[in-house]
Amino acid sequence: MSNRTNKVKKRIEHWKIISLLLMGYDFIAIVISYFAALWIRFDCSFSNISPQYLQAYYRTIFIYAVFCMIVFRFMRLYKSIWRFASYTELLRMSLATVITGISYIICITAFVIRMPVSYFLFGIIIQFCLTLGVRFSYRFVLLLRARNNSGNAYEKRVMLIGAGSAGQMIFRDIRSAKETSEKVCCFIDDNQNKWGRYIDDVPVVGGRESILEAVEKFQIEKIYVAIPSARPEDKREILGICSETSCELMNLPGMYQLYTGEVTVSKMKPVQIEDLLGRDPIKTNMDEVFAYITGKVVLVTGVGSIGSELARQIAAHNPKQLILFDIYENNAYDIQQELKKKYPELKLDTIIGSVRDSRKVFKLFEEYRPEIVYHAAAHKHVPLMEDSPCEAIKNNAIGTYKTAYAAMCHGCKRFVLISTDKAVNPTNIMGASKRLCEMIIQAFDAKIKTGEAWKIPQLFTHSMDEVILSPDITEALMTTQTEFVAVRFGNVLGSNGSVIPLFKKQIEAGGPVTVTHPDIIRYFMTIPEAVSLVLLAGTYAKGGEIFVLDMGEPVKIDTLARNLIRLSGFKPDVDIKVVYTGLRPGEKLFEEKLMAEEGLKKTENELIHIGCPIPFDVDEFLADLDELLEAAYKNKDDVRERVQKVVSTYHPA
After folding, report:
1. DSSP structural state of residue 245
2. pLDDT tens digit string along 552-609?
3. pTM of the model
4. Neighbouring residues of 523: CB distance < 8 A, sequence distance ≥ 6
5. What strands, in cross-sheet order, belong to the sheet with 372-375?
6. Per-residue b or e along 356-394, where b marks 16 or more CB atoms closer than 10 Å to that residue's CB
7. Edge-to-edge strands of the sheet including 156-161?
């Protein structure tokens, strides 16, 4: 019974009813077309029509009309959705009319009678107009209705930057979309040949220099930037001009959407602050990186924003096994589920534990024997670490020591430390703790190169003599070839603890946006750039290096905050206040990428450099580190003074 009901429903689907009505209309329209052609040929007088021509018309017209409907059906003219009729439908209707018209001329001339040429000419023209007109008139009526309806409702006034293919696709999408209440008021394009001309009824008013004037003239509220093929510097300049307005700003990410035909309003993304960075994105040849990773056991410690992105990039290039290690279960769970879904064949292990737990870390290395380690686990929040300096030492310095020691004891080939520009001449305990991390891996590298890795002291809080003094570990330390390197970069946009998410939350709450100082500056990079640098360090490493990214010119945080307010569609200090709160404990006005003593060596990538290690007494450093560990675990109040003794460049603010 249900099957019969479904069949009935299918037979009376709305579009099929419309198709049947359209076929009936076409039949009548074709009959009328050629009668009108005959009537026009004989001076618009029925009595003047020659009987032989009239007889030939009666004998052939109904057969011809049926033939036309068959051709139309073959050309899918009864299956098109005419509310979206476009060039394709016009082309198919034109082709169908030509085919049917020529067939009619040949058949009636060969088998019936030679008709006047004007009969065929007028007949074909009238048939084309009647059959095409009814189809496109439906779309035209809908367009007029939409415009009349939209005239009564509020429409956001839009500027489209880019009058090329992408811009016109966005323009058509805005016009046809019911759910958007937007009106394109003008185009901007740097091609002077388009200036002063119109797309539909919308003017192309000028190039990028006309943006600010056009925004004011047309009272623009929203700007779509649809220039996927533009050079990065041109796009950045245009976005910079747009950010001076109070308009909401949307951007088409790149050429991919244009190639795939996915240029729609929904594909437009809010302009990100990284789009306005004063440099080109770092370009790296990742083939070498992923050739090195493929088939290896890789460990990532700390799967926050950087660690998670590392895991994604590594998982995409066929490691033998990927191990994720983190104390925070939520981060670990999120990236675990993401990778399991995307890479079901990946051999993935997610372990919960702390880098401060020496037994756990040793067991991890003993069980999985990772060949490459990316050590991203760390406390990174400067103000929080100023309040808890001992925790910074325990987690960052001692956690790195324990992880690096375990790596060295278990045949790890590469150990890559994630460091920060805050380790350069640090004024806060977080930066000082990361400088300690750099010194630890440099000390380990120095001991390995002199064949004295077995002399590195066991600075563990848990007694592990039975493990450390075992013959296997002793032999491993005597022959270890682990290469230790550090990667130093600036603030990562969008990472945990980054200033950008904080600004966005403050803007969403209506302000104020808090900036510590009007002159504070920082170097910035994106998460993909940071991860590329970390991965490259794993291939360039020879041991003991500190890799540094040339991040261009630093950015004023005040400028960053104001641009972000503008990108969100507000005016700084008018809609959203900017408030200066003063430098936080341990914070300095500017960050440095290298210490004055460090020289730079080039790598294969012109934006990546190597800082030459600063010499220090390794044995003295390791002895001081032992005392520092004890003080940190006893939560001594003088831990800053003790750190300052070990890290000579540390000058607490």
Report:
1. S
2. 667 788 888 887 787 777 778 888 899 998 887 766 676 665 554 456 677 777 767 7
3. 0.63
4. 421, 489, 490, 491, 551, 552, 554, 555, 591, 593
5. 348-352, 321-326, 297-301, 372-375, 414-420, 483-489, 546-549, 608-611, 600-602
6. bbbebbbebbeebebbbbbbbbbbbebeebbeebbbbbb
7. 198-199, 202-206, 182-188, 156-161, 222-225, 248-251, 269-270
